[in-house]
Design brief:
13 helices, two-stranded antiparallel ribbon, about 0% strand, mainly alpha, about 375 residues
Length: about 375
């Protein structure tokens, strides 16, 4: 009799908890701004609830599609071409908050860099798996990845969006490292990449000011360090148990991007240290179960894809929380599965659905191994 495939319950429940947190906290963080602009706070609730519902449908479908289908060349190249066209087209869109990151359709915004991030993750995992036998021949195995990554990163930097560019580079680096490239090649690449990123960071005056404010946010609290200082105030005023849901103060015109990049500060203020701790533990569960899925995956493509998808969520969450707490300079990255933003939530839930499908296959591998050990 065929074995029933079971997804990783811990991974699914952690994802569900974050999505539920997103709906509640985006509503809380947006409510004051909605009331001051003479609109109903329920609009933001219904909008985020609708996106979350659509995202759960996407997750439900993707976790039932065999992940091996994503390694088909025609599917991968179609996704890359669509991502490339979208990244070029968005540069002709109207400037919004000093950037050109979104397609604006009525009250809906679409951020193509989120789709590009997922497309490049699948492409990198598939190419590394196909060329694993010659992984240390850089022109054969890594050059195509470098070219595709370089094109996407340059287009995203043009928007500009330094944070997403760094996130994409982090995913690709994690996959190359996991593929087993010789350490001397890997370290040589980092020696070239790190100065390049520093150079890009200091080309723009506003990025230099961000770096300066990072060393002492209080000295720049009137402008560049304002968000970090207000985030600290929110986290500190929450104490252990928080002010209570909807009772936060800093979201009331004090904390910019309260429902996006700094939503963790709102969580800390309203739900306290306990709320932030639960949030961190939930992301740690995703990282743990995602890496476990990678180890138990039945083939190398599944293993690499699981590492890429786990990195896409867990590492971005680490950097977002590090920005809010002042551990790294502000990069403008949303908190995955929690921050307001339809594109980010939908793409991350699609990625989690694929990861859950890999975990189904991994569960059969683990069960088979247990059975063989018992027979032995």
């Amino acid at each position: 009799m065929a074995r029933t495939l079971k997804s990783d319950k811990w991974l699914f429940l952690a994802t569900l908890l974050l999505v539920g947190t997103s709906v509640v906290m985006v509503y809380s963080a947006s409510s004051f701004k909605a009331m001051t602009s003479n609109s109903s706070p329920l609009i933001s609730l219904l909008k985020q609830l609708g996106v979350a519902a659509l995202g759960m449908i996407v997750l439900s479908i993707s976790m039932r599609v065999d992940y091996r289908n994503y390694r088909r060349p025609e599917l991968i190249w179609t996704a890359l071409v669509i991502a490339f066209i979208a990244l070029v087209a968005v540069l002709f869109m109207p400037v919004r908050n000093g950037t050109q990151r979104w397609f604006i359709i009525g009250s809906t915004t679409i951020q193509p860099s989120e789709f590009a991030k997922l497309a490049l993750t699948v492409f990198t995992a598939a190419l590394l798996e196909r060329r694993m036998h010659r992984i240390d021949e850089l022109s054969y195995s890594l050059a195509p990845i470098g070219i595709a990554t370089g094109i996407f990163v340059l287009l995203i930097l043009k928007e500009p969006d330094f944070g997403t560019s760094v996130a994409i580079l982090g995913i690709v680096i994690a996959l190359i490292f996991a593929a087993g490239v010789k350490y001397r090649y890997f370290l040589s690449g980092l020696i070239v990449l790190v100065p390049a990123l520093v150079g890009i960071a200091i080309l723009e005056p506003y990025r230099i000011k961000r770096l300066m404010s990072f060393t002492d946010p209080w000295a720049y609290q009137a402008k560049e360090g304002y968000q970090v200082v207000q985030g600290w105030i929110a986290l500190g005023s929450g104490g252990i148990f928080g002010r209570g849901l909807m009772a936060g103060v800093t979201k009331q015109s004090f904390l910019p991007e309260a429902n996006t990049d700094f939503i963790a500060a709102v969580i800390g203020e309203e739900l306290g240290l306990i709320g932030i701790t639960v949030l961190i533990i939930t992301f740690c569960i995703i990282a743990w179960r995602g890496l476990r899925t990678a180890v138990l995956a039945p083939d190398r493509f599944g293993s690499l894809l699981a590492i890429g998808l786990t990195t896409m969520v867990a590492v971005q969450a680490f950097f977002n929380l590090s920005v809010v707490t002042g551990l790294v300079p502000n990069k403008g990255l949303p908190l995955p599965l929690v921050s307001n933003g339809g594109s980010s939530l939908l793409i991350n839930l699609l990625g989690m659905g694929i990861l859950l499908n890999i975990s189904q296959q991994a569960s059969t591998v683990a069960a088979t191994k247990v059975g063989l050990d018992a027979e032995a």
